[in-house]
Design goal:
- By secondary structure, the chain is α+β, with helices and mostly antiparallel strands.
- It has seven helices and 15 strands.
- Strands 7, 8, 9, 10, 11, 12, 13, 14 and 15 form a nine-stranded mixed beta sheet that branches. A six-stranded antiparallel beta sheet has the order 2-1-6-5-3-4.
- The two termini are 23 Å apart.
């Protein structure tokens, strides 16, 4: 399935025809925010939560942009054939006509959206699911990671560092505290209790993170939002990462050190069952978003 139609400032057009100004502040300064939203059978998954996070990001950078987001994205998904697609939505402060740190309050935002197919990671059982190896590196990001901004150079460098040693993801540590992954949220299991770092300015509240917490509560799995350091991480019985496009992924190795028994853990298997049961229904058009 191709997904060649994009949305740009009120128009739906082929991707190779989309153009922005070289003076757009998103291009020059990463003065922009974004969201990635899965759509299953044309319906946005946890769309309300994603758009609430987008509105929060816009408010935090004082960017006024009031648009019918749901209608824009639904039309984009439809024009790309519907089904199961992931939508990327970016809002920049707009084209200032010149390069300057300061900006006029009446700039017209640039709104861009595109989509891509969602890989069906839920068709196979737990034994066929990928296992991750990760590294831990110092968190070099700015202090407002709760804003989903497009200035992702520190994340890129951390991911590249992981790739260079054959790892799949980089976990970020700040002041001795594990925060999250370069493109994911983090969970560990110790003595039968699931832990995830508590929310702060240094963590982006992921919608999949939120769903995992909800599923744990619904199925009476003990879970705590609490801070932990490197020792707790490498001595954990299980480690998971989560994201909208990858779901819940087991980590079997951190910095070349085996986690637990070096295989998928029992609580991950339970969470995978609860999570994928819902996702399979959505991808078949049988569930509720």
């Amino acid at each position: 399935m191709s997904a060649d139609i994009v949305y740009l400032n009120g128009q739906y057009l082929p991707a190779d025809e989309a153009r922005i100004s070289v003076f757009d502040r998103g291009f020059l300064f990463s003065d922009s925010v974004y969201e990635v939203i899965p759509f299953y059978q044309g319906q946005g998954f946890r769309l309300e939560q994603h758009l609430a996070r987008l509105e929060n990001s816009l408010r935090m950078i004082s960017l006024e942009a009031s648009y019918p987001w749901e209608a824009i994205l639904s039309e984009l998904i439809s024009r790309n054939g519907g089904g199961n697609l992931s939508a990327y939505l970016q809002v920049t402060r707009g084209n200032a006509g010149r390069r300057s740190f300061v900006y006029d309050a009446d700039l017209q935002p640039t709104v861009f959206a595109c989509c891509s197919p969602i890989r069906d990671i839920y068709a196979a059982g737990p034994e066929q699911q990928v296992e991750y190896r990760v590294i831990v590196t110092e968190d070099q990001r700015w202090r407002r990671c709760d804003i989903k901004a497009t200035g992702l150079l520190p994340n890129i460098l951390a991911q590249q560092q992981a790739r260079q040693v054959g790892a799949d993801e980089a976990l970020l540590m700040r002041d001795g505290r594990l925060m999250e992954g370069a493109s994911s949220n983090l969970f560990i299991v110790r003595d039968g209790v699931i832990h995830t770092p508590s929310m702060s300015y240094g963590i982006l509240g992921g919608t999949t993170r939120e769903l995992v917490i909800e599923l744990a509560q619904a199925h009476q799995l003990p879970l705590q939002e609490s801070d932990f350091g490197y020792t707790e991480l490498i001595q954990a019985d299980e480690v998971w990462i989560t994201s909208s496009t990858r779901g819940v992924v087991p980590v079997i190795e951190v910095d070349s050190q085996m986690i637990g028994q070096g295989k998928k853990g029992p609580l991950w298997r339970l969470m995978f069952e609860y999570f994928t049961r819902q996702q399979r229904e959505l991808m078949a058009g049988e569930g509720h978003v």
